Amino acid sequence: MIAVRDIVIYEEDFLTRALLQEWLGEAGYRVRIGNSRGAGRDAPCDLVIVSVYMPKQAGARCVHDVQAAHPGTPVIAISGQFRPGLAAAGATAQALGVRHVVAKPFNRQDLLESVRVIIGP
């Protein structure tokens, strides 16, 4: 029996958040919405997806707050400020301290591929 993987989403845009919940839920993941940024520790999970807003310092601070709420949990950062074709685990991901970055807009396949690389099906 395969364990259900828990994913927490930090996304302020309602429509994007709903789409992420739908895609991930249909793929068999259990999805919940994270507490407001910087609000202490959240319940344990297998993966965090966080929407990052720029400028750069604000984005890094946002990621740091989410990582503090989920110590040791892998993070995928999504943003409309990332350029298309950005290497998922490249320099931007390393600079932010996350496992993968995904540029918005993205499709279901792009999102699920990043999730599966990190936590599996």
Secondary structure tally, helices: 4
- Strand arrangement within the widest β-sheet reads 2-1-3-4-5
- CATH architecture grouping: 3-Layer(aba) Sandwich
Average pLDDT rating: 84
CATH topology: Rossmann fold
Q: What percent of residues are in strands?
A: 15-25%
Can you tell me the residue ranges where pLDDT is under 50 for at least 5 consecutive residues? none
Q: Can you identify the CATH class?
A: Alpha Beta
Q: Strand tally, please?
A: 5
Q: What is the count of structural domains? A: 1
What best-fitting shape do the alpha-carbon axes yield? Answer: globular
The proportion of residues forming helix, as a percent range, comes to 25-40%
Write down the oligomeric state. single chain
Alpha-beta classification: alpha/beta
What is the CATH superfamily?
Response regulator
N→C terminal distance: 12 Å
What does it look like?
37% of the residues lie in helices and 19% in strands. It is α/β, with parallel strands linked by helices and 121 residues long. A five-stranded parallel beta sheet has the order 2-1-3-4-5, sandwiched between helices. The protein has one domain: Response regulator (Rossmann fold). Strand 3, helix 2 and strand 4 form a beta-alpha-beta unit. The protein is globular, with a radius of gyration of 13 Å.
